Amino acid sequence: MFLLIQRCCFHTPFNLQKLTGPKLLLYGKSKTTWSCLGLRLQRDVCSVSRPPNLNPASVYATKLQAFHTSLPSFKKKTPKESETKQPGVLQRSIQLLKDSPKPARYLSLAGLIPFVSVPLSMAIQGTYYPELAFAQITYGAVTVSFLGGMRWGFALPENSPAKPDWLNLANSTVPAVVAWQALLFQDTTLGAVMLVIALGIALHYDTALLPPYPRWFKVMRVTGTVVMVLSLLATAVLKAASEMELINKRNKWENTK
């Protein structure tokens, strides 16, 4: 009966009951037996009252894990494809010009020679030639008329995305009319200004109003228009410089009298 009460109340293991049972019966009044029993009961109570998460094995594993935990390593992130450096506008334009058909590229470059050669020759010789300036205006008027008529050739085919309506066909005649007006001016400076306006109108039609044009053609049109406009303005500046020089010479000659 005593063994049953001891097992139920103190949760004493079976081995402890087996060892201490006879000792309690034989040496009930022995101090050694009671001290041994108290020590065993104290160990069992401590083991029962200790939370399961604080057992020695878990504490040791936690310490071992904390000991071997290292700081997070900061690795260099590889740049994504979208974050890579994109080529600039100038590089893309040059690449599109290289990818354009050779006949279109070479003929366009050859067509810019009369524009560039006029102000370049006058700047090298240091003299303004009105005949060369008028020849440049005439060639510019022919070029602008060609650029305007290109819309007719684009809109007339049956499978073309541009319809041969009043808007497309009438707009193609506007640059030609402005170029004809430039030839009527006796002053080459006014003629150059009118051609610059006509070139701007034609460029707006080709780049904004007709999106189906290939990208290389649009880049070629922008490049050619910039070169033609700069050449015409350079001729106008050379004319203004020559006129200022003539005025200064006349003033000096009048002062010497």
Describe this structure in words.
The chain is 77% helix and 0% strand. The chain is mostly helical and 257 residues long. The protein folds into two domains: 2-52, no CATH class; 89-256, no CATH class. The longest helix has 42 residues, at 215-256. It starts with a helix and ends with a helix. Residues 8-35, 45-54 and 56-75 have low confidence and may be disordered.
Give a concise summary.
With about 260 residues, this protein is mainly α. The chain has helices at about 1-10, 15-25, 30-50, 55-70, 90-100, 100-110, 115-125, 130-155, 165-185, 190-210, 215-255. Residues about 10-35, about 45-55 and about 55-75 have low confidence and may be disordered.
Q: How many β-strand runs?
A: 0
Q: Could you tell me the mean pLDDT?
A: 75
Broad structural category: mainly alpha
Number of helices: 11
Low-confidence stretches: 8-35, 45-54, 56-75
**Biggest beta-sheet profile:** none
- Radius of gyration over all CA atoms, rounded: 50 Å
Chain-wise SSE layout:
Blueprint: H1 2-10, H2 14-26, H3 31-49, H4 56-68, H5 89-99, H6 102-111, H7 113-125, H8 130-155, H9 166-184, H10 188-209, H11 215-256
Features:
257 residues, mainly alpha, 2 domains
